[in-house]
Specification:
Protein name: GGDEF domain-containing protein
Oligomer: single chain
Number of domains: 1
Order of helices and strands: HEHEH
Distance between the termini: 26 Å
Structural class: alpha+beta
Largest sheet: 2 strands, parallel
Mean pLDDT: 82
Organism: Pseudomonas inefficax
Helix content: 40-55%
């Protein structure tokens, strides 16, 4: 959470200086936490993508984590 917060803060500062837009440009982050190395990179990416879009649907400019054992990621 701390790293994601720092990334969002730095992105917001950079974007406000370099990308003049009517609405603020924000950063949404989706991430996976798992207890075993991935057996399927595709499943890992898919779960991160699901978390990202949950973050966007819940107001954007946020961080969403999916925490699952790797056995659950293959389903």
């Amino acid at each position: 959470m701390e790293l994601g917060g720092l990334l969002r803060e730095q992105f917001q500062q950079y974007a406000s200086r370099t990308v003049p837009t009517p609405q603020p440009v924000t950063l949404s982050i989706g991430a996976n936490l798992f207890d075993q190395p991935p057996t399927s990179l595709a499943a890992l990416i898919e779960q991160g993508d699901v978390a990202l879009y949950q973050s966007k649907r819940n107001g954007r400019d946020s961080i969403r984590f999916v925490e699952r054992p790797m056995a659950d990621l293959s389903q």
